Fold Transcriptional regulator, LacI family.
Amino acid sequence: MKPKISDVAKVAGVSPTTVSRVLNNRGYIGEKTRQKVDEAMKQLNYFPNDVARSLFIKKTFLIGVIFPTTTNPFYGQLIFHIENIAASLGYKILLCNSQGQEDKERSYLRMLQRNQVDGIIAGAHNRGVKEYDIPTLPVVGVDRYLSENIPVVSSDNYDGGRQATQLLINKGCRNIIHINGPIYLETPANLRRKAYEDVMKDNQLPPITYETDGDNQAVIKQLFDENPRVDSIFASDDLIASAVIREAKLRKRNIPSDFKVIGYDGTETTRLLLPELSTIQQPIREIAEKTIDILTKEINEEGDRSQMETILPVRLIESETT
Amino acid sequence: MKPKISDVAKVAGVSPTTVSRVLNNRGYIGEKTRQKVDEAMKQLNYFPNDVARSLFIKKTFLIGVIFPTTTNPFYGQLIFHIENIAASLGYKILLCNSQGQEDKERSYLRMLQRNQVDGIIAGAHNRGVKEYDIPTLPVVGVDRYLSENIPVVSSDNYDGGRQATQLLINKGCRNIIHINGPIYLETPANLRRKAYEDVMKDNQLPPITYETDGDNQAVIKQLFDENPRVDSIFASDDLIASAVIREAKLRKRNIPSDFKVIGYDGTETTRLLLPELSTIQQPIREIAEKTIDILTKEINEEGDRSQMETILPVRLIESETT
DNA sequence: TTTCATATGTCAACCGGATGACATATAATT
DNA sequence: AATTATATGTCATCCGGTTGACATATGAAA
């Protein structure tokens, strides 16, 4: 049986209350007593039961984190930083991979509430999941509009889209196509596409966009078939950009002289595996920092309801595909 | 204030015990009563408090997961599958990024015990962290020997190393160099190197190994400088392999005619970003499955202490760098 | 000598829910 | 009419730790 406070008290020869006082540094405690208690805890290999503690203090120091999948390098890196910063503040992470499925998202939300998390960070969101509006529970969205009452942190997607498109134009491209993931999500990431369209129009160029539903390869083939004169592609993330490069090489296009590609995200993993890819790098660490900052302030009821949207600057990385 | 069982009872016009009976499906419950209770719960937006429940039943359905970092695509994908399978069994994941630091690992272990996790899955391990030997708590290691009493799940690293080396030899390479990450970890992954050395010796070829401490690029440059005649490299993971390719291209080596590279891991992300890389693919999903299978059996005290090591087969992916 | 800060103990209530014991009531069976 | 399965209520206890109230003891300062 796991030892409890009363067991520690017996071994140390003090009262349970005294042990609790030592644990929580409350009231008067003598130096010798503290030592006796510490020794007893070590001897019994005692660990305070945070479940019991949480029940009483009505706080778990748990943060629920919902993203589509840790497999994607962007989310993997973002979650790493979130966990990291949270841990430094004494918070622990309950991990949820929603996989873009509404029902999973809903059931995770129930689960997190049953577990009495102190707050939720979510970057997954299907239209129609209204369950995020929980009056009693702080929630922060990352790159996703969850509800009018929920603060969002994202990078400057519009500026990123603008920079990417402008770069291609500056390099002399005219037949620039944008390709993005599922657009039905109400996400600030759609601004990348909007910026692309705006910049194209400003330059009297016709915007053409494709959308992948997951099968990147098929859509990209179609794109090339339907647009033989395409001279560059702005992909809404680096994975798609990579598939584009692949297909372009198969079609004997010369990168970057004959054909240019720029991606989006600029994760550590992409930089390592595909350093030649030009891309728009998101400030992942800063997004994590800001998100936790807002969330913990809401948890401690110091939330600033005036700033509902936080936008962080992106950085253009010019490499060898542009 | 969050509603509790007694609030639900009041609204439904029944006793708290009856509500608890409905929640746990225990004893006799009338259909009308069940409906009244369900409605009351919906009306109050009631969620059972799992903290209180856990305290009483002495089970949290929490699994602590400790790996170096979710940023690495191998761990990201592994954790995704672990979370996924765990969720389907009603378990939740407490995520820990140890970053290869002993002190972090230790403090995570304390944290997990305080939180009364039902079990721990760990793939991080620094020599000297003996705290994994927790008599009362099921632990399973992934690709890491944590202690003599802790079961390990890994892929067949020796066979992977053998296949990789043999492939290079079969392709006519003779100056094959192995490069791996920090080797001081007591990990089955060291078998990759052992296999490389064995195969080389079997073929009367001198094994040469390099070790990176994190700064891949520097070590790789040094490797090329010191071994101008190197004709192929077996890297212990795909990220290193990618850096090797990078450097080889800088040195105008022609891949694969003039110079060959094979990596290790074969994650989804690598396959997407660097599909041309030949590699040894680990069965990540199966590793996750087996790990959880062993862990849950230990949690339910159906553990099979005879099988302390589980080794799953790897798969050679021949692509364009060999 | 009195006063007070320090140190520790005892005791009870509480956090929210689970559960066993027991009482009671209704309706269906025998 | 007696028995039994079904349905619900009351009550107390427990899970492990926190906290406030109150008592008591000691040594130092006033």
Q: What stands out?
A: Chain A has three domains: 5-48, 57-154+285-311, 157-283.
